[in-house]
């Protein structure tokens, strides 16, 4: 309860702060008088403030297009502030920063370096105008950006020559020429700089209304030396030093060198630029030396497993380093079992998930850095089991951005934010408003305000689909009739299944929000749709569109099960299809695995998952999961080595094998319903807003031992099969010879869930022993 209250108090405080700052209209957007707003422009801003005493409070609202680094008296306060632009098609994000501890009595220098992308991208909507807004208070004294600030263009920064990064990325490959460096501008107030020009107050075009950053500031893990293997490839003109990172990470590269030769070019890139780029050009860094001792950090983050430094002859390398940064969350969840394959899968999935979290969820951290909404559905589900509750805020941001970018005609699209993309992928958007998207977010977080906020836009989108004469829907292919990577896509049924899942999610949402008429409508639609779907598409052996001529689509069978379109009498036939057909991409394989657990086939669910993912899990080169079944493969959109949509099985293992899932929103009540199959041992730690849940089981031929730790603010339902001969709960018999005992009826018995044994337990540690 404490965590939950804190989560919502933070949201309330943000709204109050937003209101307070909105009253100060003195702060102005500022820039340099000569800046041409060209892509990849870097600006230095400075303000000197005199203080009679060391202050106790100092808060600033800072906005920029596009990123900024804040220094107070020469010390780094913020490393990469700002979010890629686009809370909506017109607005800009701002940060709120407490900088009090860096201030002192007397002269204080506020210095801000701004990186203006100046390009549109799949994750960024450029305002097409470089600028900075600083709106703050030091104790009771306002400090704000205006014409008294100083500013200069940092001429040392330029854009590296071809090959340029692909059109999806708003960032440029940075070239830094140390010969043009503006020395000590952030610590020396006498260093000459130009006068800032004002461009309008907060809310002025083209930045428009400001929205408070809804996620934490990025976590800075600090500057570190490379500790892995180092390889030096000696060349005639330059040496290439290859440094290994501990895992695929978001990093900025650093080096310290010495040379007597100015004008020499050092090039830095990762293996994801050189080899594993997912089919398109990625980012790199270049540096032009000055004479003497010098150190440099390239501030545009890269990712990969290896960092390459191409260093010309005549340069002495004194040190090579990296700084990891990323989304501020903790790896609070865990999973372990007796089959090490799934331990390695879970760890790779977790690493891939974290690598694809920053300004937004990303499909990949290299080729696109784009918030494809179908990917985000899978990613948010993983975050609920792998990461601390601070990750919820990124899921909330995703949902808000999806509905705030909705077109006037009701169409949703992704990725958003976006400056050069506006195409609808209906199946992904239906997944977003449906059972595994919006509803799943509410169910795991208990954030009813976001559910309320998104409900009407989701309803408007769903109303774009019109019923046909049979009770199904008229097909809407959208701008990109995608369905999935790979072949043998029964596209009509893929779309129909996601439409039904959208109805299912909206029905649950309408019930929670008290939308009685809507709930009745969705319920009636689902009944009609399910009957029509089975009448038209069930052949007796599988689901198929009569017009579809390809091989039977395994995706469709799985979606029918997880959506609830397929009843139990069809499970054997569906199972036979899933044993024969393997066309789903790693993205869709999550639904296949979940469907098999729902059909009570845990052993085959694990066997298929192991077969399909064996190549990428067993690959020792990569710490992350791939986009497709091969990497660098155009069949899978380019085939990156770090696509988080592939980690959906992480959530399935914790939710179904270990059995942990909420029964009431925000885990006020949850169930532990393990489907152990032949697995000998498994354990899971699940961080929730209501506390940390821990569970483990030991599965023997004649018994099952289950341990559950129920946190203090919750209660749980423990679910076991009725085939158990005897069940003891903390040493007390609660089930004997096919019947609940009197004590169980009096204290623990719960309404049965799916015909299973169910025991309600309060907070505490519970040891269950079941004889088979």
TrEMBL record:
<dbReference type="Pfam" id="PF17389">
    <property type="entry name" value="Bac_rhamnosid6H"/>
</dbReference>
<keyword id="KW-0378">Hydrolase</keyword>
<keyword id="KW-0732">Signal</keyword>
<dbReference type="InterPro" id="IPR008928">
    <property type="entry name" value="6-hairpin_glycosidase_sf"/>
</dbReference>
<feature type="domain" description="Alpha-L-rhamnosidase C-terminal">
    <location>
        <begin position="659"/>
        <end position="727"/>
    </location>
</feature>
<dbReference type="InterPro" id="IPR016007">
    <property type="entry name" value="Alpha_rhamnosid"/>
</dbReference>
<feature type="domain" description="Alpha-L-rhamnosidase six-hairpin glycosidase">
    <location>
        <begin position="332"/>
        <end position="648"/>
    </location>
</feature>
<protein>
    <recommendedName>
        <fullName>alpha-L-rhamnosidase</fullName>
        <ecNumber>3.2.1.40</ecNumber>
    </recommendedName>
</protein>
<dbReference type="GO" id="GO:0005975">
    <property type="term" value="P:carbohydrate metabolic process"/>
</dbReference>
<dbReference type="GO" id="GO:0030596">
    <property type="term" value="F:alpha-L-rhamnosidase activity"/>
</dbReference>
<dbReference type="InterPro" id="IPR035396">
    <property type="entry name" value="Bac_rhamnosid6H"/>
</dbReference>
<feature type="signal peptide">
    <location>
        <begin position="1"/>
        <end position="20"/>
    </location>
</feature>
<dbReference type="InterPro" id="IPR012341">
    <property type="entry name" value="6hp_glycosidase-like_sf"/>
</dbReference>
<dbReference type="Pfam" id="PF17390">
    <property type="entry name" value="Bac_rhamnosid_C"/>
</dbReference>
<dbReference type="InterPro" id="IPR035398">
    <property type="entry name" value="Bac_rhamnosid_C"/>
</dbReference>
